[in-house]
Design goal:
The chain is an all-alpha fold and 139 residues long. Helix content is 77%, strand content 0%. α1 packs across α2, α3 runs antiparallel to α4 and α4 packs antiparallel against α5. The termini are far apart.
Length: 139
């Protein structure tokens, strides 16, 4: 298994694993980041991030947002990514809060654009209907 770990098994890393196994959420996230560095072990990283997130670590929740959004170690899933982003924001992550706010602004802009397009289409339909009504009265 040591050959699959993208880091040296230093005393520091082993201490990190020991603390993570003892329930330390931040150390669990730290262990996950060791595995996240290599595409071949990102799936292992996601498991560690999920454990850290369940322990309430907002950093791990942000990593899970990134993992599910881009498909690092997991199949890309925007719905799950958004759930992790929301959880990180609720935990007080300023980065996650900024991303959520940005997504809300984009959504509002898209809705406004759709309203404008809808109104333009309605005006065109009314104009065409009036042209047809005027044309049929003249015959």
């Amino acid at each position: 298994m040591a050959e699959q770990i993208p880091t040296e098994l230093t005393d520091e890393f082993l201490e990190c694993v020991k603390n993570a196994e003892a329930g330390d959420a931040q150390e669990t996230t730290n262990v996950a980041t060791y595995f996240y560095r290599s595409p071949t072990t990102q799936k292992i990283a996601v498991n560690w991030f999920e454990l850290a997130a369940k322990r309430g670590n907002a950093d791990a929740m942000e990593w899970l947002w990134d993992s599910y959004y881009h498909g690092y170690g997991v199949k890309p899933d925007f719905a799950i990514a958004i759930q992790w982003l929301g959880k990180a924001a609720k935990q007080g992550s300023t980065m996650a809060q900024a991303i959520v706010e940005g997504l809300r602004k984009i959504e509002a802009m898209l809705r406004e654009q759709q309203k404008d397009q809808h109104n333009t289409i309605l005006k065109d339909i009314k104009r065409l209907a009036n042209m047809n009504n005027t044309g049929s009265q003249e015959t």
